[in-house]
Write a structure and sequence with these properties.
Blueprint lengths: L9 H10 L9 E4 L13 E4 L2 E9 L10 H18 L7 E8 L5 H9 L8 E6 L9 E8 L5 E4 L16 E4 L2 E4 L16 H18 L7 E8 L5 H12 L7 E5 L9 E8 L5 E6 L2 E7 L2 E8 L7 H18 L7 E8 L5 H11 L6 E6 L8 E8 L1
Parallel strand pairs: 4-5, 10-11, 16-17
Antiparallel strand pairs: 1-2, 2-3, 3-6, 4-6, 7-8, 8-9, 9-12, 10-12, 13-14, 14-15, 15-18, 16-18
Helix pairs in contact: 2-3, 4-5, 6-7
């Protein structure tokens, strides 16, 4: 199936589909706040929409004093924060289906794995792990997760033995949560030879091949992918990564993509990609203009590409306001508003811009804000901020 790109007329298309009964009924959205948690944050600890729970990034803080907390303690602290949000929503760790782990130093990968894995007794979620250029408050780790309330609808996808590179930690290749498949971040290692190509284009081709193997095991294909998040370790290779991803999919089938540069990824890889896919029966509607896909509605959920606005000026507030204006337009084209946003990822080129960004974030989401993850990434040109989001009706 090829994806058509729609303009602002999509809202009318969605409205007609709703009247025809093709669109699912609106889901209940509620902010989740653990008892005793901080109340001064501009984002929600968690947002539950339907059966899906989006959990904000939880920090492992080093503290102060002569003996700062090590990564084992910090990872436990971050996972305890996730557990508190899960408990407030009436869920547990067994309900987690996808986690993103951001480390301040990839050398702490093994310590994080041990502390993280201790929170799971059987099935483990899909997971993506990268090293950020910096984390808020000097944290050594930040973890954001997605949970799903219906345990009976959660299952792990396991391709045949040897079909994928050996996992480097406690994570599943992919996990079904109802009609949505969350795929772990994958790199370009050949599962047979263990080799990693030197060129980033070769790494992307192998990464897509590994993910295609996973999709096939789930009974899906590339056209069922509705969102992708890509990471490059070299800013100069970001464009090549994006072009190679488009070539691997075919120009008509590239999903909304977020792409940022980070200092380091697990092992020798220089490119990592994580996908979200849905069952073929899920109604889909692309949103975009000028040949570019800005978002993709899949059932009740709208996945929006990460946007930046360096042309708005040198100041962080001007760029942030321009970015949210662009995102607002995409949501409107999808028949939604900013109030329907459930999860936001903010990529800053400098964490010193956090306070100013928070000012704009509060203006944008004055009540019942979404869950949020914030990390520092490697600067791309004059870009100060890049933002991606998920919304749901």
């Amino acid at each position: 199936m090829s994806r058509r790109v729609w303009g602002s007329g999509l809202a009318l298309t969605l409205l007609c589909a709703t009247l025809a009964g093709a669109q699912p009924a609106a889901s209940t959205r509620r902010v989740i706040r653990p008892a005793g948690g901080p109340a001064d944050r501009p984002y929600a600890p968690g947002v539950m929409v339907g059966k899906t729970l989006y959990i904000s990034g939880q920090l492992g803080l080093p503290g102060t004093g002569a003996t700062p907390a090590d990564l084992t303690a910090q990872t436990k602290q971050a996972m305890d924060g996730i557990g508190a949000v899960l408990t407030a929503a009436g869920l547990g760790y067994q309900h987690l289906v996808k986690c993103h782990v951001y480390l301040a130093n990839m050398d702490d990968y093994a310590a994080m794995n041990a502390a993280y894995g201790a929170h799971f007794t059987e099935r483990v979620p899909a997971r993506t792990t990268v090293q950020a250029a910096g984390l808020p408050a000097g944290a050594g780790v930040e973890i954001g997760c997605i949970g799903y309330a219906d345990l009976a609808a959660i299952s792990v996808v396991r391709p045949p033995a040897g079909a994928l590179p050996a996992p480097l930690g406690p994570y599943s290749p992919a996990v079904w949560a109802g009609d949505t498949l969350y795929v772990s971040g994958m790199g370009g290692q050949d599962p047979a030879t263990k080799a990693v190509g030197e060129a980033v284009e070769a790494q992307v081709r192998q990464t897509v091949a590994n993910i295609t193997t996973t999709l096939k095991a789930a009974g899906l294909q590339a056209t069922d992918v509705v969102h992708a998040q890509a990471y490059a370790t070299r800013v100069t290779e970001a464009d090549a990564l994006s072009a190679a991803l488009a070539a691997s999919f075919g120009a008509a089938d590239v999903p909304p993509v977020g792409l940022v540069a980070v200092p380091r990824l697990p092992g020798p890889i220089r490119a990592e990609i994580t996908f979200v896919a849905v069952r073929p029966a899920q109604a889909r509607a692309p949103i975009g203009s000028g040949g570019r896909l800005h978002g993709l509605a899949a059932g009740p959920t709208l996945y929006v590409s990460a946007e930046s606005a360096p042309e708005a000026g040198a100041g962080i507030e001007a760029q942030a306001r321009a970015v949210f204006a662009t995102l607002r337009g995409t949501l409107q084209d999808g028949g939604l508003t900013l109030r329907d946003t459930v999860s936001v990822v903010v990529y800053l080129s400098d964490l010193a811009d956090m306070a100013a960004m928070n000012t704009v974030f509060r203006e944008t989401f004055p009540t019942d804000p979404p869950a949020r993850v914030t990390i520092q990434v490697q600067p791309q040109g004059q870009e100060r901020i890049r933002v991606g989001l998920i919304a749901a009706r």
